[in-house]
Amino acid sequence: MPLTGQAARALIELRARIFTGRLRAGDRLAEIPLAEALGMSRTPIRLALSALQSEGLAVPAPGGGFAVRAFTVREVDDAVALRGQLEGMAARLVAEHGVSRGLSRRLHEALDQGDAALARGVLDEEALDAYGAMNTALHAAIAEAAGNAPLSRAIAAVEALPFASASALVPSPGSAPQRHRLLTFAHQQHHLLVEALEAGQGTRAEALAREHADNARRNLRLILDSGEAEGLAALITFSDAVA
Amino acid sequence: MPLTGQAARALIELRARIFTGRLRAGDRLAEIPLAEALGMSRTPIRLALSALQSEGLAVPAPGGGFAVRAFTVREVDDAVALRGQLEGMAARLVAEHGVSRGLSRRLHEALDQGDAALARGVLDEEALDAYGAMNTALHAAIAEAAGNAPLSRAIAAVEALPFASASALVPSPGSAPQRHRLLTFAHQQHHLLVEALEAGQGTRAEALAREHADNARRNLRLILDSGEAEGLAALITFSDAVA
DNA sequence: CGCGGCCATGTTGCATGCAATGGGGCTCTC
DNA sequence: GAGAGCCCCATTGCATGCAACATGGCCGCG
């Protein structure tokens, strides 16, 4: 992954602008304005746009060029379900292969951090950040430990989509007490999942991982139905599909 | 998908050269020779190389540029296992949502075509082609009918890898009688899978789809162990990994 | 007044030019 | 003779130029 290079910079910046809503769904990605805005020539922009298409964040526009992909609610929901299936596979593989001493330590560290973040009844900004980081680390540890590179790639690909990431919904939902309840429940699932992994219960681990993702799907619908879609409107089209 | 355009042509041609072994694992993908060979400038070549990287067929080379990705046996095996998990999800979704009349027709047509191709004891070239086409159609029908676009994308991505495709192993394995036995068994699994789909048995359908992929994994190992790796040596490195 | 065709313009897609970087080979020295 | 340093060159990555295409507006015509 070239951290230097204009094309990489363009890709990162474009991703950021899409995720933050500065570029909204359907917006045309014209090369010249982007090149000027990013202070580079059109060539690296073109490369970044092509990569963005591979990532699924941009779609070819009629008559050439690209536009920001419009995601339907259905599609985001489907993506989370897919993530559940993939993480379920990862969990099953880990359980079947056995949990190494190092992995066990990583998992329990994450669980402890989550417990600590949730220990106080309220979740301030700092606790939310800590929980989010813990969540990312836990899921990443399991995905890695599965030892299946194509699987890891597939998980990374689906996490590149907006709101499909494991910790995408952490900061958002509802009131503070409700949020605490939701995260507490999710973290209980984490505990059960680790328990299943260490007990070598592959099928149970897979089922728990799926249920964990389904939980995220429910929370997502909660957010959308509650009209709490702050930045979401930029990315999700509430009417019908734009493939 | 732009069917016209030099970049698209370059991408297709490069994919073909990698799959046919004309470009071997580890080969450096230098722009100028490729541009000359394909009769175009370096610009569309660069675009195609970037896309090839997204597809996982090329990796960035140290010091810039790209090289043909080297696949380990392990990685191909993992990719097929992943395909099984994904097709298992598709099968489960289809079973849960119910099989439409049109889908049922497509499925049974495929089953009949497979039966016909296998009816004669021997498998000539034509019968193999027919079986392969049937196989592709059957798997594609189920993947589509699942109605989960991110899932379809994921399946397409994993099928883009060499030997991970559903029908990649059809023409290859072993002697003619052995091949007939293997395909007959695989097709019996097709029958059972369709039965499960139409009976709404989601869990069974998922298990069958996974088992079907595991069957492909066994056949793959059979080929590799039997030294029948004709064009495979160009793509698979039998020593250790090159990420 | 409405519609069709034409032109102008903006944009894309490709080709080419140019500087920077990294590697290989040669030579000089010890 | 072996090793180290230097120079040349090939290759990449980016910038820019150019032609083709599609789009939108305007004018002329019905």
TrEMBL record, chains A, B:
<dbReference type="InterPro" id="IPR036388">
    <property type="entry name" value="WH-like_DNA-bd_sf"/>
</dbReference>
<keyword id="KW-0238">DNA-binding</keyword>
<protein>
    <submittedName>
        <fullName>GntR family transcriptional regulator</fullName>
    </submittedName>
</protein>
<keyword id="KW-0804">Transcription</keyword>
<dbReference type="GO" id="GO:0003700">
    <property type="term" value="F:DNA-binding transcription factor activity"/>
</dbReference>
<dbReference type="InterPro" id="IPR036390">
    <property type="entry name" value="WH_DNA-bd_sf"/>
</dbReference>
<dbReference type="Pfam" id="PF07729">
    <property type="entry name" value="FCD"/>
</dbReference>
<keyword id="KW-0805">Transcription regulation</keyword>
<dbReference type="InterPro" id="IPR000524">
    <property type="entry name" value="Tscrpt_reg_HTH_GntR"/>
</dbReference>
<feature type="domain" description="HTH gntR-type">
    <location>
        <begin position="4"/>
        <end position="71"/>
    </location>
</feature>
<dbReference type="InterPro" id="IPR011711">
    <property type="entry name" value="GntR_C"/>
</dbReference>
<dbReference type="Pfam" id="PF00392">
    <property type="entry name" value="GntR"/>
</dbReference>
<dbReference type="GO" id="GO:0003677">
    <property type="term" value="F:DNA binding"/>
</dbReference>
<dbReference type="InterPro" id="IPR008920">
    <property type="entry name" value="TF_FadR/GntR_C"/>
</dbReference>
